[in-house]
């Protein structure tokens, strides 16, 4: 899979988006991340592995603790991809608006 696909897959699940949201406030211990979910630690670990594979988080072992940090750079690739479609729709909506302005002007000329 390419990087964009990995990132889109990773952010497709609400729990993983919640983890990203939590980590956007700063690094957190594994247990603090897991604390927000009513699921087993194994489930949280699987979500973290997927986020890590997409390059969205990194883990650092500090003594007996695992600290998890957000790496937001891969999200920029998603934003760029979305921006391409935003530009496409904006151009088409502008053309649509111009069409109706011309049509309205023609109608006003006739009356």
Structure description:
The protein has 111 residues and is of the alpha+beta class. Helix content is 68%, strand content 13%. It has a 3-stranded antiparallel beta sheet. Strand 2 and strand 3 form a beta hairpin. The longest helix has 38 residues, at 73-110. It is elongated, with a radius of gyration of 22 Å.
Measured as a percent range, the helix fraction is: 55-70%
Gap between N and C termini, in Å? 60 Å
| Bulk shape | elongated
Write the H/E string, N to C: HHEHHEEH
Précis, in short:
This protein has five helices and three strands; from the N terminus they run H-H-E-H-H-E-E-H.
Using brief descriptors, characterize the structure shown.
single chain, 111 residues, alpha+beta, three-stranded antiparallel beta sheet, 5 helices, elongated
Mind sketching the topology for me?
Layout: H1 3-10, H2 14-23, E1 28-29, H3 30-35, H4 41-53, E2 57-62, E3 65-70, H5 73-110
Antiparallel strand pairs: 1-3, 2-3
Helix pairs in contact: 1-4, 1-5
């Amino acid at each position: 899979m390419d990087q964009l696909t990995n990132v889109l897959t990773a952010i497709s699940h609400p729990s993983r988006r919640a983890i990203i949201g939590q980590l956007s406030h700063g690094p957190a211990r594994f247990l603090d991340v897991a604390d927000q979910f009513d699921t087993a630690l194994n489930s949280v670990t699987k979500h973290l592995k997927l986020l890590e594979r997409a390059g969205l988080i990194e883990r650092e072992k500090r003594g007996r603790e695992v600290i998890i940090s957000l790496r937001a750079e891969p999200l920029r690739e998603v934003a760029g991809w979305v921006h391409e479609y935003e530009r496409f729709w904006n151009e088409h909506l502008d053309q649509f608006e111009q069409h109706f302005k011309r049509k309205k002007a023609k109608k006003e000329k006739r009356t």
